[in-house]
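Input sequence (367 aa), recorded before submission:
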Amino acid sequence: MSLLRPGNPTDTRLDIKSLSGHGPELHSALRDLSIRLAPALQVGGTGFPFFLLRARLRLELAASGAIVGAPVVSLDDADDNAAPIAKHLVTLIANAVLTRTPFVELVHRPHAEWKAIEMVVDFRTKPEALMEKLSTASTAQDVLDLLHSLSSEENREGMKRYGIKIDRALGISHGVQRNIAKKIKRNHERAFELWESGIMEAQFIASQTADPKRFTADDARRWAAEFDSWDIVDGVSDLFVDTDPWRQLIEEFAEDDREFVRRTAFAMLCWATVHRKKEPDATFAGYLPLVEKHATDPRNFVRKAVNWALRTIGKRSLALHAPALTLAEKLAASDDKTARWVGKDAVRELTNPKQIERLRAKAPKPR
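Predicted structure, token format:
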């Protein structure tokens, strides 16, 4: 019988004083490891009705090894017996760690008097604590070591739900990646070393710390050739927009038949529309024919980027709203299924009263 209730987890915070002061031992033994443990526990004497129970133990450890806060046990069951069962399991595991008792992994071991309990133990260190050692002098290897220590299989699996390819990913949030980039600051040579690692998170950090003034069109072409997921495209395109040949690259990448390279063109167009505030509106109005040309590309990550670009141009200013909406309405009436989707979705957003009100509010007032 399973007590799993997906979508209804409970957190039981346990103040286990026996763990106090043992941070260094736990830190050295299990830091950044996820261990799947299914200990076979005898029911006799425990007083608990043991069924298959999933629990996740999380201990946040500072870089020094000290435990930060109380251990947290997340359970997939809201039964009143959950807390004492969890406490029993946590104590068992903690004792095994502190006494260097080997863990025996048992997925299931049926017996007449007891049943196996499956537990996921996740000892992790707070990213902020690990990043304390980073500085502008940190090497690419220092950054890579940190990224590997922050990897999360659970996050990787979560990325798949958003259509992100995870072959080269470690499962680290963009927020943490940006904080790392802020910590180590710009270093063009190190950025290229990070890129060469092939790790998606390292490549995003590379794009955040490369010098756009030294970044050439050939550099952009080489990096774009490695794009294999919309996530890395949208993250790195922001760097391309800050380079001198950004307009040349948009035109060139739009004509490239590779799915993620073409997406790069329209992701760049979006970022340029938002970030290049001194660029005249006429520049972006000039890209509407390019949007129309590729609105029939049925590939998922291209059509979504084309739609994104059309909506973003239309939301930049009141002057751009009218031509963008005109194109959106034209596409919405198209015989082509993809173009029709691009247009209808854009019309929906560009005709939103709140969007129009916002554009009118930011429009220059007549003198």
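Checked by second reader. The chain has a mean pLDDT of 76.
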